[in-house]
Amino acid sequence: MGHRVDREPAHLDGESNVSELIATPGQTIGPFFGYALPYEGGPELVPAGHAQAIRLTGRVLDGAGEPIPDALIELWQADTSGTIVQSPGSVHRDGWTFTGWGRAATDNAGVYTFTTVEPGIVDGSTAPWFALTVFARGLLNRLFTRAYLPHDGLADDPLMQSVDADRRSTLTAVPDNTGYTFDIRLQGPDETVFLRFPSHTD
Q1: pLDDT tens digits, 77-92
Q2: Quick check: pTM over 0.85?
Q3: CB-CB neighbours of 170 under 10 Å
Q4: Structural domain span for residue 78
Q5: CATH of the domain at 136
Q6: Helices H, strands E: what count in the chain?
Q7: Contacts of 184 (CB under 8 A, 6+ apart)
Q8: Per the structure, how many domains does the chain have?
Q9: Is residue 60 part of a domain?
Q10: Backbone conformation region of residue 95, classed left if phi is above 0, alpha if psi is from -120 to 50, else beta
Q11: Residue 33 placed within a domain
Q12: What is the mean pLDDT of the chain?
């Protein structure tokens, strides 16, 4: 979150000092995130051998379509029944508890991968989705988006209905042999739709 800093301007023609509040940038990923934030088991919301395990993977691309090799993706999701899980242990994996949260860094090709389960439909939606948060170099604030799964109720989902029809494909994951692929484009003609929450002040 950006911080506001008091600054004392110089005297102008005998006027008294007036305190101004200047907003500073939020954060940028920098080279240090790669040392501090990824952790063992972060991309594995369930073990690879889990009976319902799927893979969510994709690339993070810049405006020129080039991969971003030092981005960080956080994933939040419901369990298979559509319940938002509120179990402890999101960081310290115990090998069997599904916590609905993970963190994955991109590789040199800009690829991220999560091992998880297919989410159910949560209250207020008509189709299942993954919530994704993107951190990357050059971003002063993190970005929020959703990766919707193909579903009969997709067109009726309230959030999807609020998006222009020609942009909805940027919020839809594509099925593959092991789960789903969802590329995140930060700029350009096929830029991913990013979300802004009223309560989020960054």
Answers
A1: 999 999 988 766 666 7
A2: no
A3: 18
A4: 28-185
A5: 2.60.130.10
A6: 2, 11
A7: 58, 59, 60, 61, 73, 132, 134, 145, 192
A8: 1
A9: yes
A10: left
A11: yes
A12: 83
